[in-house]
Design brief:
With 469 residues, the chain is of the alpha+beta class. It folds into three domains: 127 residues, Histone Acetyltransferase, domain 1, CATH 3.90.360.10; 154 residues, Gcn5-related N-acetyltransferase (GNAT) (Aminopeptidase, 3-Layer(aba) Sandwich), CATH 3.40.630.30; 166 residues, no CATH class. The protein is built from 13 helices and 17 strands. Strand 7 and strand 8 form a beta hairpin. It is globular and about 75 Å long. The structure holds acetyl coenzyme *A (ACO). The site of acetyl coenzyme *A has 27 residues, from strand 14, helix 7, helix 8 and helix 13. Acetyl coenzyme *A binds next to strand 14, helix 7, helix 8 and helix 13. Belongs to the HAT1 family. It is an enzyme of class 2 (transferase). It catalyses: L-lysyl-[protein] + acetyl-CoA = N(6)-acetyl-L-lysyl-[protein] + CoA + H(+).
Length: 469
């Protein structure tokens, strides 16, 4: 980490500027206004602000109690993060420092809380490009290859030296408690913190964690193989009563330069392939972001479209929606997938029940005539029913949620169980309760339903595009 006061500009009228800069109480600066992170692959990209700059999540919570940086004038924190060895180097520049009433923020601990030991000095950082050029290759050498495909020509980045066979994309699975793999993960944690809202590191000492790495394999002109890391997913094996296991995707991240090229989907599919081959109970995802949920729903719905056994049940609900005016009915609508169908989907496709219910709505929507006003009103009435049910479940959960610690074989401080003291289960994702008077609540509910309808339509549109292509 290099701390620099910008030379040249300090002398001369420095005193005057300082007085101007801190004449008032220091209001501080938001971390995201002065921190920039650049992803670099080569030594000569270090120090250049023209390198690939990533969009960061809110970093304020790393910087002091109120999340602001105090005491610096024209502060810039530029960080170069190597996507070869996953080390980082920070260059901090400012015109001057002065305590303007709130002290001078110590930047080092804040940066260390994000980058940990991967934050190193410039000289050492520059050397990593040659010393650790095969870092990823060495780590993945013992992993299990789950998926391999050749890269399409138009997906190939211009900086790749093409060999006769062309690059391949592989998804490789390995256990996180192996020391070198755990160390790699510790170097990837900064990316989780910088790119995933609310991202937290996982505990690599628990042997139930695995990491799925999506990599690009190439050959350089001398025939030596090069392996680039494109993204990863951490997956936990949960015990499922009485004698099976669930796979839960905890974090999934594709490095920003490689996003939107199908690698996130490859990771999801690789986790699914393990679920099939090992007859896992089902696959779940821990607090998916909106985009991940969209991607996952598109992918699962595509699988479901090809799954014949559910078609009669879909037709039955579609016919029901074509009937009279369901929005006027007082009893609960017959819309949810039948229990035996849910069970079959879980067994054969490993799609979790909650996720299947989401895809079910898309499948129904795909079979409706969107021009048929009555039919769409009926569909909306069913979505409204479901949203209200979710809110009631959420409230019941909030009332009855309990948390207890339970011992395990590795570290008794690490394991806890959440359970509901009343009838409960996993929530369906409506955040918080409705607030305010009945009219405001009605308005909020209507907005929630609109949003659900939009999401369903968006996924349906993408799925039909992919299905017909
Ligand atoms: C639990 C958690 O970890 S939550 C946090 C999730 N991670 C993050 O937010 C970190 C930052 N974001 C990322 O790392 C990435 O954007 C991810 C992991 C969310 C997604 O990975 P990506 O590689 O960008 O996605 P990928 O390219 O595979 O898929 C996206 C596209 O594939 C489409 N798709 C989905 N299924 C299929 C399919 N079967 N066939 C073809 N395309 C498909 C999607 O519709 C989407 O296209 P669109 O956006 O044009 O509509």
């Amino acid at each position: 980490m290099a701390l620099k006061q910008k030379g040249g500009e300090i002398s001369g009228d420095t005193k005057k500027r300082r007085r101007v800069g801190f004449a008032n109480i220091d209001t501080g600066v938001e971390a995201n206004e002065c921190v920039k992170v650049f992803l670099v692959k080569k030594e000569d990209e270090v120090g250049k602000t023209s390198s690939y700059c990533i969009d960061l999540v809110d970093l304020n919570h790393f910087f002091g109690e109120d999340g602001k940086i105090y005491g610096y004038k024209d502060l810039k924190i530029n960080i170069w993060l190597s996507i070869v060895s996953f080390h980082a180097y920070a260059e901090i520049t400012y015109k001057s420092t002065q305590d303007g009433g709130k002290g001078i923020t110590d930047l080092k601990p804040a940066l260390q809380s994000i980058f940990g030991e991967s934050l190193i000095e410039k000289e050492e950082f520059l050397q990593t490009f040659s010393k650790e050029c095969h870092y990823i290759r060495n780590i993945v050498s013992d992993g299990k290859v789950l998926h391999s495909d050749s890269l399409r020509k138009d997906d190939q980045a211009s900086d790749i030296h093409l060999d006769a066979e062309g690059p391949t994309i592989e998804v490789i699975c390995t256990e996180l408690h192996n020391l070198p793999v755990g160390l790699l993960y510790s170097r990837l944690v900064p990316l989780v913190l910088l790119l995933v809202e609310g991202g937290r590191p996982i505990d690599v000492t628990d042997p139930r964690w695995e990491i799925f790495l999506v990599v690009k394999k190439m050959q350089d002109p001398s025939g030596d193989s090069i392996i680039d890391l494109l993204g990863f997913a951490t997956v936990y094996r949960f015990y499922h009563y009485p004698d099976s296991t669930r796979l839960r995707i905890s974090q999934i991240l594709v490095l920003p330069p490689y996003q939107g090229q199908g690698h996130g989907r490859r990771l999801l599919e690789a986790v699914n392939s393990v679920a099939f081959s090992e007859n896992i109970y089902d696959v779940t995802v821990e607090e998916p972001s909106d985009y991940l949920q969209y991607l996952r729903s598109c992918n699962d719905t595509l699988h479901l479209l090809a799954f014949e056994p559910i078609k009669p049940s879909i037709s039955s609900v579609v016919s029901y929606l074509k009937e009279g005016n369901l929005s006027k009915r007082t009893s609960k609508l017959r819309f949810a997938p039948p229990a035996n169908v849910m069970e079959l989907v879980r067994q054969k496709l490993k799609i979790n029940k909650k996720q299947f219910r989401r895809c079910w709505e898309v499948l129904i929507y795909l079979n409706l005539d969107t021009e048929n006003h009555r039919c769409m009103e009926n569909f909306r009435a069913c979505i409204s029913d479901r949203v209200k049910g979710d809110i009631l479940d959420k409230n019941a959960e909030a009332n009855g949620k309990c948390l207890i610690e339970v011992p395990n074989d590795y570290d008794h401080d690490m394991t806890f169980v959440v359970f509901w003291s009343q009838a409960g289960g996993e929530s369906d994702g409506i955040d918080g309760k409705l607030e305010g008077d009945p009219a405001t609540q009605e308005e909020q509910l209507s907005q929630l339903i609109d949003k659900e309808m939009e999401d369903i339509a968006e996924i349906a549109q993408k799925v039909s595009l992919l299905h017909n292509s």
